[in-house]
TrEMBL record:
Superkingdom in the source lineage: Bacteria
Compartment(s): Periplasm
EC number: 3.4.-.-
The protein, known as: Putative beta-barrel assembly-enhancing protease
Hydrolase found in the keyword field: yes
Pfam families from the UniProt entry: Peptidase_M48, TPR_19
GO cellular component: membrane; periplasmic space
BP-aspect Gene Ontology terms: proteolysis involved in protein catabolic process
Task performed by this protein: Functions as both a chaperone and a metalloprotease. Maintains the integrity of the outer membrane by promoting either the assembly or the elimination of outer membrane proteins, depending on their folding state.
Signal peptide range in chain numbering: 1-25
Domain Peptidase M48 span(s) in chain numbering: 70-257
Amino acid sequence: MFRFAKAPTYLLVSALLSSSFTAQADNFNALPEIGTTAASTLTIEKEMEYGDAYMRMLRASMPVISDPLLSEYIQDLGHRLVANANDVRTPFNFFMIQNREINAFAFFGGHVAIHSGLFLHAQSESELASVVAHEIAHITQRHLARSMEDQAKKSPATMAALIGSLMLAIASPEAGIAAIHATTAASAQGQINYTRSNEKEADRIGIATLAKSGFNVQAMPRFFGRLADQYRYASTPPAMLLTHPLPESRISDTRSRANQFPAKRVSTSERYQHARARIVARYAGIDSEAALDWFNRQLKKANAQQKNALNYGKALVYIDSGKYQQAHELLDPLMAAEPNNRFYIDSATDLDLYEKKYDQAITRLERALKDNPNNKVLRLNLAHALQKAGRSTESISILTRYTYDNTNDTNGWHLLAQAYADNGRRDAELASRAELMALRGQWDKAIQHYIQASQLVEVDSLDQARYDARIDQLRLARARVANL
């Protein structure tokens, strides 16, 4: 699969604590108390506005993993849990950040982030799901809004700054602590951490969600216990333990609750194993030799199912290292055994494109799409293969529909911009790049790109009318964010 350079990591403190939040502080303080938990601070609609704004900032400032296969996996896992959760009031969006720190966090609007490092420490899909289920519970129970409500009562003068620092703290605890020290003299622990009752509530609800979703509920106390043991005496605990402390009482409570459910044997998830192998090969921040050493050590103790995923991971390392023959030796038998496995189709496409076997790649993808015509991974792969084959015009029709269906997917806009560039359509290229900037909250740049696009097309044409209408929409979106 095509891969794009990741955005550099910038400090979010200045943006989150900017004066754009200040005007809203008085409005928050003036809201009446009507008795509903968190209602006096934020409505669901306002939470979604904050969540959308913060998601755009994260895209611009953190190394969000845009890998379509991993996005598909984590979205499917998350929505399997959401389908069995109670009190769901918002849509949910699950995404991954390339970071070896063990962490996951949730924020307004149903957004849940999972660090890639979590895959390296979770030893089963149920363990990973236990963390995700816990974060889902934080959202359904509106713990962040309730925390903000509590802080608003204690220090109303700093409400605007607390919005920024609280949201920063859940994503980057050390920076959040610094931000809160800059805005209030109150205890940093009390300001940024969910309360113990919140944590226990999220554990309790998360375990119930795990059980209804068909996962092993014992995975939560097992993972929490192993994490606590590993970092019990560490001078610098992982980010997850800064915002989600693990006292023995909490681990005991999760173990007690898990024991209330009947024992359940859960089979190993092939997709989880393949996703984990892909992360080790491409997103663990280690060189090819270290990755191969990890796969070889794991292969010595793996069962047959795990061996397929581990050999797939080794094939990825060989592909990325330009060792195509070694990659073929591992990948070809896997493809022969499971020709519909999208992890294998994606990697076989990579190999074909590197070896300039464009027709072979396109034929394979078109065949796969007949069985699964709306699959995002296959559609993006086909568009990319067509571009590599010099058939960008054909890819435009695919990507136009794709970006219409998936407006928040940066992959589609990246490829569409490139396709228009290949075809010499500068106005459409600028418009596509403007959408990328808007997804990162870079409103001024997005508007300027659309203005340039409008100036390049015929006056009073349909394209100009469309570009001008989009300029108006972006200006309204910019104003809404400013009003937050």
